Input
Amino acid sequence: MKKLINFSISFIIFFILLSSCKQELVKENKGERAPLENIQKDPLPSWNETSTKKEIIAYVDVVCDKNHPYFIPVKDRISVFDNDGNLWSEQPAYFQLFFAMDRVKEMAPDHPEWKNKQPFKAVLENDMESLAEQGEEGLIKLVMATHSGNTIKEFDTYVKDWIASAKHPTKNVTYDQLVYQPMLELLQFLRANDFKTYVVSGGGVDFMRAFVTDIYGIPEEQIIGSRIKTEFDYNDGNPRIVRLAALDFIDDKEGKPLNIQKIIGKKPVFSSGNSDGDLQMMQWTASNKYNSFMLYVHHTDSIREWAYDRDSHIGKLDKGLDQAIKDGWTVIDMKKDWKVIYPFEISDSHQDQD
Amino acid sequence: MKKLINFSISFIIFFILLSSCKQELVKENKGERAPLENIQKDPLPSWNETSTKKEIIAYVDVVCDKNHPYFIPVKDRISVFDNDGNLWSEQPAYFQLFFAMDRVKEMAPDHPEWKNKQPFKAVLENDMESLAEQGEEGLIKLVMATHSGNTIKEFDTYVKDWIASAKHPTKNVTYDQLVYQPMLELLQFLRANDFKTYVVSGGGVDFMRAFVTDIYGIPEEQIIGSRIKTEFDYNDGNPRIVRLAALDFIDDKEGKPLNIQKIIGKKPVFSSGNSDGDLQMMQWTASNKYNSFMLYVHHTDSIREWAYDRDSHIGKLDKGLDQAIKDGWTVIDMKKDWKVIYPFEISDSHQDQD
Output
């Protein structure tokens, strides 16, 4: 949510520029293949044989070895993953914002007043310049109007319907296809070694739970995120939880370790993120009495994904990068370390082979 | 917390009365035995062969049977248990209040001003009448002074030290011995059938996590409770989470289903409680699309435990009992349904056999 709120004018200009030069970038990297037959032997087949992959595997081997001094009991193998820009893409805007904009268009028939009311007018007219002019206040209005005033069940249905049909503005695939194949393998590798995998994201928890459970193999109770306030309504024997137009908790920056303590109650041993919003979670993980692993995704691939870090208005990675370098945390160089970015690149390459 | 706040004058009088006639009630029921050799065959050996036990076993059998129309997939087998009065005793006061009072005495040397300042003066002088006169405001002061101003690590140590040594005022055993043996068996029976067992309590989450994990076999991340606010302090590279003197969330009444949704994100199929504070959690569970099970503990045993319900100032069971009767929820009659109350009754009876 906070990330959404930080959404700035220059970012919107960036968005407009990108939208105006739509490309099918995803088709350009078919050459990078991760043949399925290797998955059996290699737990991270979509990762190149660089030091990053070796460090991850060496860490897991060591902490799961009962005879090693760095052994970690199963109950303490807590791993936490940021979502936007870490498990799936986040450009040219957080996908949850596209959902909010699409919801405005869907809800518009019941809100004739939106035709002449900002920020809704701008969304309905696809006028990104005017939307940018509404600033943070306009964005909060947008999120509150589209994310509240419904029950958790209704909201869940809206998100499920959206994810099944809406397409990313430049990649032109459904958003759920824009998850990172190498990270899916990492999640699976950790679980195979009895790590509990959690999502700890600034994104809305009910938004994520509506569909990422299936994609990441992570149950609802291991998805942590930002929340709006809710209220319980007995509703004459048909109880429901209603979503209110007020923020309850921002799961970003200091909020991440605080929420981890509130909800998990244990310090993670493995933490993965891509921005300064994940730094406190990394610091908290780094202070574990067990040998812990801090992993930053560095967006370095302007061709297959996007390249951005210190000056980005989304997923800014500046202080985090400094501390990662200073403290020797592992930094994924997306361009060099990953054979493929998205799962469909594997299917594409296999279809080519047929 | 809210329960603590509701702590009333008449309750304190009750407390004084009880304290003045200390008895070793726990020794009176050795005759009720649950021989260990039966545990293998019978999942609930400390339960008498009444309809309550039969209903529980029949439910679990049915919902775990793949060929039955009421089958529930493993991922949705979420069970939630209130703590005070449901998994362990709560009389003559919530055990967390005894902890707060003992902490005041322990902290007193660093707070000479407490000698003349209420409610601390009353606690230090064991003057329960004056403590009662401080009312809710005094109790909040007591809880805030003893539960905040420390790190989660320090607080964890205080609770662990306390539970290892402090004794219940009338039962004269450490508080961790006052858990209900039949409920420990029920938790184990559910887990053996792939239910995830959660504690969802009005008690403080960090208080519970400090010791109930071992006793109930429930990991920290499955313990949900009331919380005070916290803040993250980077502390020059030794990050810590500091507990602040302000309430964050009251996990009672409507708070229970709200917190279940926030943290678990799924509706439970099995809910167990003992008071009106659990009613909304029961109603929420009863509205599950799956066949669900609502279980109330009714405190009917004035000899082995305590007998109280509609008029009690702790664990009041009034509206809940009405709805349980109306809707056919299962109500445990502690006196009739349980062979033993506490685990040490089994050990005692076995020692007798030696």
About this structure: Chain B touches chain A at residues 75, 78, 152, 196, 205-206, 209, 219-221, 223, 227, 230-232, 234, 237-239, 241, 248, 254, 257-258, 261-266, 280, 283-284, 287 (CB under 8 Å). Chain B has a mean pLDDT of 89. Residues 281 and 331 of chain B are 15 Å apart (CA to CA). The first strand of chain B starts at residue 78 and ends at 81.
